[in-house]
Amino acid sequence: MPRALLPYRPSMSDEQKTQLAEILERMLSGVDGDALLFLGKAETLTRTPMEPSIYLDLNYRREIERRQKIAFGESLTDSTVKDNPVSPNYIHPR
Question: Is the pTM value of this prediction over 0.70?
Answer without folding.
Answer: no
